[in-house]
Design a protein that fits this description.
Helix 1 runs antiparallel to helix 2 (149-164). The longest helix is centred in the middle third of the chain and has 16 residues, at 149-164. The chain has a six-stranded mixed beta barrel with strand order 13-14-18-21-20-19. A three-stranded mixed β-sheet has the order 9-12-11, covered by helices on one side. Strands 16-15-17 form a three-stranded mixed β-sheet. It has four helices and 21 strands. It folds into four domains: 5-95, Thrombin, subunit H (Beta Barrel), CATH 2.40.10; 100-182, Phage tail protein beta-alpha-beta fold, CATH 3.55.50.10; 186-206 and 273-334, Bacteriophage T4, Gp27, baseplate hub, domain 3 (Elongation Factor Tu (Ef-tu), domain 3); 213-269. Strand 11 and strand 12 (177-181) form a beta hairpin. It has helices at residues 114-124, 149-164, 234-240, 255-269, and strands at residues 5-14, 20-26, 31-39, 46-51, 64-69, 72-84, 90-95, 104-113, 129-132, 138-148, 168-172, 177-181, 191-193, 196-205, 213-219, 226-232, 244-248, 273-281, 291-295, 306-318, 321-329. With 340 residues, it is mainly β. The radius of gyration is 23 Å and the shape is globular. Helices cover 14% and strands 47% of the residues.
């Protein structure tokens, strides 16, 4: 496969005497293509790879696989599916530890931070944990009943981002669940026209994740009624019409907390969503959640170098060539930070 890339798998085998042992197998020479995808929110990291040749030993489901390129540890996960065709090619899909958090569970978190919530859930599922950043925000009370653990964590992550004004990223760092602030995932390479980028698309819209009215409701046990809290921007309502965000909040929150949350939600969502997809030469350290210096002449908001947040990153290793596709969402999330 070239590029100093190495693909290995840990396979459990049984000896003639019935003793099981784990054997490390190197598939580097028979791998045709490797594609690794990470998303900043809501889904586990994924590696799809294809092994050639009738003689290639199969990789059983649940086997641990690792992908390293030029000494950079890029992906560690577990095989979940395998598909073989008539030409003797076997395509595998592996996911990192976040896949195991798709299981449903019920929790009551009292006076716990996001890092404490992650550690508690990880311990319940026997998952390895690495460095978990201190966000500085504590949930007074967070109740979750029969919800996916991954949804629970990402919902708490989204609330933490809004409450703190800081962007945190939750991901599996080569076998260790990690929570980091996005500013600590700054890429060193400038991506843009004339600098590694080979193509791009740019889009502006108010069709997804844009709201100019926020309506939060809380059940009031004492009055038997529902308390309603609304923040809105009349200027953007005149321009776009009413785009309403609605949610029922924890009844243990007080009026001041809900009113503050309402204002923060409006501040976060009341904007034109800007997205860009950039195709570029591969940078091994870039993943979803990375902060990337980007400059694209011809796009008004990107004429100057800006720090942008990667929502989704797909790396492709094939035929000795490493490329990547980066999807960037909402330049305003980093305050439109200019770096030059």
């Amino acid at each position: 496969m070239g590029m100093g890339a190495v693909l290995t798998a840990q396979i459990v085998k049984e000896s003639p005497g019935g003793v099981k042992q784990t054997v490390a197998m190197d598939y580097t020479d028979v791998v045709e293509e490797v594609e690794i995808t990470t998303n900043r929110m809501d889904s586990p990291g994924k590696m799809a790879f294809c092994i050639l040749g009738q003689g290639a030993a199969s990789i059983p489901e649940g086997s641990s696989v690792e992908f390293v390129a030029d000494g950079v540890k890029i992906f560690k996960g577990y095989v979940f599916s395998a598909e073989r065709n008539q030409d003797g090619e076997t395509s595998y899909i592996a996911y990192d530890q976040l896949r195991y958090l798709k299981a449903n569970a019920s929790y009551v978190f009292e006076n716990m931070s996001l890092s404490q919530i992650i550690r508690r859930i990880a311990d319940d599922f026997g998952l390895a944990v690495g460095t978990l950043a201190d966000t500085g925000y504590v949930f007074p009370c967070l109740l979750k009943e029969d919800e996916g653990c991954l949804d629970i964590i990402f919902d708490a992550l989204a609330q933490t981002i809004i409450q703190t004004g800081k962007i945190f990223v939750f991901y599996d760092d080569f076998g260790a669940l990690t929570l980091a602030e996005a500013k600590d995932l700054l890429a060193n390479s400038l991506i843009g026209e004339g600098s590694m980028a080979t193509g791009y698309t740019y889009k502006r819209d108010i069709d997804t994740d844009t709201y100019n009215r926020v309506k939060l409701v809380r059940k009031n046990e004492n009055s038997g009624r529902t308390d309603v809290y609304i923040h809105e921007d009349t200027d953007t309502i005149k321009k776009w019409g009413i785009l309403q965000y609605y949610s029922e909040v924890d009844e243990n929150l007080n009026e001041a907390q809900i009113d503050e949350m309402c204002g923060l939600y409006l501040q976060y969502y009341n904007r034109v969503l800007q997205t860009a997809t950039i195709e570029a030469l591969g940078v091994k350290s870039v993943r979803a959640g990375s902060v990337i210096p980007v400059r694209i002449p011809g796009v008004e908001d990107l004429e100057a170098v800006r720090l942008l947040l990667a929502e989704k990153v797909t790396h492709n290793f094939e035929g000795g060539v490493h490329t990547m596709k980066i999807e960037i969402k909402s330049f305003a999330q980093l305050g439109g930070v200019g770096v030059v």
